[in-house]
Write a structure and sequence with these properties.
By secondary structure, the protein is of the alpha/beta class. The termini are far apart.
């Protein structure tokens, strides 16, 4: 098969491309230029898409003897990922940009362009497995639980999975680095990048403030309704946050306070004690199914963070909405986050959380 290997310039995508070549495929390396003004060098492990990364990817492609191209998707990345991220925070929600990038860039824009050019699919360095099931190809958790990235791939549909290849899903990360070193790849010891890739310094609040400006509002006690402080914008807060609230414990009975809700229309951030954070009912929209969609009530596992724990749950699907009842309360779940549903190791699908509550 003719396959595009998405090469970020890191160790994982380098080994993934090499394995696809070893498997006998006709491989072409592609680096995605996602920044409108790419830096020359990385500033930290969070950054990506620098000229250094593109150069690292090119050197791996040269060593493998495969063609290499840079595809400029910066404008679409800005619109579909970065701007979506900014507007979601402005609306008081907490998005996951990695899911949006996988959905709209790597397995929409990239895959669509690859297919239009006559390729059969796209290979990436994600840690996940695609296995044949009774209804077609299925997305499963990776063998390495510490590196499993099936959560951020839970937005892929069956058609995209049919064209997706994840050669690292059955390997441990240590083995991948060792293989890279044995192949002579200079990126063998390169640090892993961390999300959020377009906030290289890790200061999400600062990034959002530069985009949105200051939008002052009130910090309000969620129980009494009393105003207990002020803030510079709801975009600087997310449910479960404890630090950076600007509150003195002495004014609030000495107990630490957390963000328990964000009311963007009224520019209010609701704060309360830890016992108010736990929820066990989630409602979600923007449903994405990795295979045949479930209907009615089904018993599944639910995960609400990329590196979070799977929780036993039941899910009821009706039309374009899913209601997930968690087996226990989970703290800090915010609208805008994604809930990914599992059946064993298989990813059933995902939804964007629109509301949370507690069962009576």
């Amino acid at each position: 098969m003719r396959v595009v290997a998405a090469m970020s310039g890191g160790v994982d995508s380098a080994v993934a491309a090499a394995r696809m070549l070893d498997a006998g495929h006709d491989v072409v390396g592609v680096h995605l230029a996602l920044s409108r003004s790419a830096a020359t060098l990385r500033e930290s492990a969070r950054g990506c898409c620098t000229l250094e990364d593109a150069g690292d990817a090119r050197r791996v492609a040269d060593r493998l003897g495969i063609p290499f191209y840079v595809w400029d998707l910066a404008e679409r990345f800005e619109r579909d990922v970065v701007e979506d991220f900014v507007q979601e925070y402005a609306a008081g929600r907490t998005p996951n940009p990695c899911l949006r990038c996988n959905e709209r860039i790597k397995f929409a824009a990239l895959l669509d362009k690859a297919l239009a050019l006559g390729f059969d699919g796209v290979a990436t360095g994600h840690y996940a497995r695609v296995l044949e099931g009774p209804s077609g190809r299925e997305l499963h958790r990776a063998v390495d639980p510490d590196k499993d990235q099936s959560y951020v791939l839970g937005v892929l549909d069956a058609d995209q999975l049919a064209r997706a290849f994840f050669p690292l899903g059955g390997s441990l990360k240590a083995a991948v680095r060792q293989e890279a070193a044995e192949r002579g790849f200079a990126v063998a010891r390169k640090p892993d990048s961390h999300d959020i890739c377009f906030v290289a310094d890790g200061d999400t609040r600062g990034f959002l403030t530069r985009r949105l400006g200051e939008r002052p509002g009130e910090l309000v006690d969620a129980v009494s309704g009393k105003v207990v402080g002020e803030h510079a914008g709801v975009h600087g807060f997310t449910v479960g946050q404890r630090r950076g609230l600007g509150l003195e414990r002495s004014r609030l009975d000495g107990e630490p306070r957390y963000v328990v809700g964000v009311d963007a229309p009224r520019a209010r951030v609701l704060v309360g004690t830890a016992d108010l954070l736990g929820v066990d009912v989630l409602e979600g929209a923007h449903l994405r199914w990795c295979g045949p969609p479930p209907w009615g009530e089904v018993v599944l596992g639910a995960q609400v963070r990329a590196h979070g724990e799977e929780v036993p749950a039941s899910a009821t699907v009706a039309e374009e909405v899913v209601r997930v009842r968690l087996g226990r309360r989970v703290r800090g779940v915010a609208p805008g986050q994604s809930v990914v549903l599992y059946e064993g190791s298989r990813v059933v699908g995902s939804a964007t959380v629109t509301a949370t509550s507690r069962a009576a």
